[in-house]
Amino acid sequence: MLKKTIILVVDDDKVLCRSFKDVLELDGYKVITAETRVLALKAVGKTPPDVILVDIRLPDGDGLDLIKEIKQIIPDVLPIIITGYGSLESAIEAIKTGIYGYILKPFDVEAVKKIIKKAIEKIVPEIEIFRGRVKTWEKEVAVIADDNECLHSWLNKRKEKYKGKCVKVVLITKKDEPKD
C-alpha cells in the first residue's frame, strides 16, 4: 500500500493552518501544521514532508530561508509559497529557491488544491523515494517508477550513496502492488 502524501503547512495564522489541515485531509493527504520556523524544522525532523506550503513572513524568520533549510534536509521536497505580501522581488527570490508555486492571499482553496495536486503528480511519473525514510528504514528504499528507465536513473543517481551497503529496493509501479 502506498503511503499518504505528507504536506507541511507553515503559517503564523492558526485559523489558516487549521483550514488547510481540514480541507487537505478530506482529500486524503496527511497534513502537519507549524506556526513558526522552529516548529516547522522540528516537524520536518519527525515526519519529512513531500510538499510544504510556507508563508514568506513568519514570526521567527523568513519563509524563503526556511525553504532553503528544509531543502538541505529534503532536497526534492516541493515548496509552495503562500503570502499576503507578494512582490516581484520576493517572487524572483522564491523562484531561485526552487519553489513549485507562489500563491497570493487571499486565495481560492480550489486553486491551491489544484497546485498541490499538480505538484504531487510531478513526483509520481518520475521517481518517488519515500523522502527521508531511508534514515528510518535504514536498509529499505521504496521507489515508484513507471518503467525501467526511471529505476535505472534513480539507481545511477544514488549508487555512490549506497555503495558497499546492502539495500532492499521495493519497486512500485502505478499498476502493481509493491514488489521486492
Q: Could you outline the blueprint of secondary structure elements for this entry?
A:
Elements (H helix, E strand, L loop, with lengths): L5 E5 L3 H13 L3 E5 L2 H10 L4 E5 L1 E2 L2 E2 H11 L4 E6 L4 H9 L4 E4 L4 H15 L4 E2 L3 H5 L2 E5 L3 H15 L5 E5 L8
Parallel strand pairs: 1-2, 1-3, 3-6, 6-7, 9-10
Antiparallel strand pairs: 4-5, 8-9
Describe, in short, the structure shown.
With 180 residues, the chain is α/β, with parallel strands linked by helices. The chain has helices at 14-26, 37-46, 63-73, 88-96, 109-123, 133-137, 148-162, and strands at residues 6-10, 30-34, 51-55, 57-58, 61-62, 78-83, 101-104, 128-129, 140-144, 168-172.
Give an overview in words.
- The protein is of the alpha/beta class and 180 residues long.
- The protein has 2 domains: 6-123, Rossmann fold, CATH 3.40.50; 128-172, no CATH class.
- Helices cover 43% and strands 23% of the residues.
- The chain is built from 7 helices and 10 strands.
- The chain has helices spanning 14-26, 37-46, 63-73, 88-96, 109-123, 133-137, 148-162; strands spanning 6-10, 30-34, 51-55, 57-58, 61-62, 78-83, 101-104, 128-129, 140-144, 168-172.
- It has a 5-stranded parallel sheet, with helices on both faces. Strands 8-9-10 form a 3-stranded mixed sheet.
- Helix 2 runs parallel beside helix 3.
- The protein is globular, with a radius of gyration of 17 Å.
- Mean pLDDT is 75; it is low at 125-146 and 171-180.
